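Memo to structure team: turn this sequence into structure tokens by end of day. - J.P.
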Amino acid sequence: MSDRSTGVILVGILAIAALGLSGYMFAERLFPSSQSQQGSEQGSILVGYWEYLGKSTANPDHDDNSDWLIYLGDHQYNNSNYILVNNQRDRFTLTQAGYYKLTLTTWIDNIADDHIYRLILLKNGIEDNLIYRIYGDPSQPDEFIASSLTFYSDGNDYFEINAKSTLDFGFKPLMDHDMLSIEYFL
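Reply from structure team:
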């Protein structure tokens, strides 16, 4: 074997090893092992992860197309030591006191010009944190949302994600984009 072919093989092996390590690190970040969950006093653990989010108008306080709740679709992971989800899957209770990080990615559509659209984290039925705000642009009738926020729960608080505007607007569930995750800070 020549030095050149040996070098190419060595570079190939290093590239494959780097891809494997980065894949492992990504998977460990999304789904921490029990060892990492019990680990240091820094960092966070994943306590809930859902895909295929939906639009819910079942709650009488949020029951029309301009004021609705996001319901949690198929759950990929739900740590019942930290989070409980109601039967309608539009409300969750965080059972451990502490700080949490919520990350949401999705699309909303039917956005009209000169109107404000908001996604709000409700805590015990009251507006607590703004997740995302859109001011309607006629050139973009839909918007991709990628947002995260940190918030506190006393261990008894329940939360909902409220979508609200002065006009009707839609929710555009796309399997590749819908995701809600909740992490607990250690």
